[in-house]
Write a structure and sequence with these properties.
- By secondary structure, this protein is mostly helical.
- The protein is built from 2 helices and 2 strands.
- GO terms for molecular function: DNA binding.
- It holds the Pfam family Histone_HNS.
- InterPro entries: H-NS_C_dom (IPR027444).
Length: 106
């Protein structure tokens, strides 16, 4: 039976051979993929459809009337709004209703 050190040496040699084989075969695979993409005229979107997915843009919620700066309400508050009442900086479409709508009873 091989000794512990002999087994470690064999493992080290196998790890080296595995790394070499992986490098060689991955280069060949990449070459094949590139060839097929070129041959069939695939676009980047077809090959990587998830790469084009963009996060939905967050609507601007607050603005500074003095400078026109805008903020979505996410992340660290800018200096012009930090420590102040946020409701004063809401965009007009974001203003809370001041009066309740009338309820019509038939």
């Amino acid at each position: 039976m091989p000794s512990y050190q002999e087994l470690l040496d064999q493992k080290e040699e196998l790890d080296r051979l595995i790394a070499q084989a992986q490098k060689k075969e991955s280069a060949e695979a990449l070459s094949t993929v590139r060839q097929l993409i070129k041959e069939f005229g695939f676009t980047a979107q077809q090959v990587f459809p998830w790469a084009e997915e963009k996060k939905a843009k967050v609507a601007v919620k607050y603005y500074d009337p003095n400078t026109g700066s805008k903020w979505t309400g996410r992340g660290k508050p800018p200096s012009w709004i930090a420590g102040k009442d946020y409701s004063q900086f809401l965009l007009p479409t974001q203003q809370p209703a001041e009066t309740k709508p009338e309820i019509l009873l038939w």
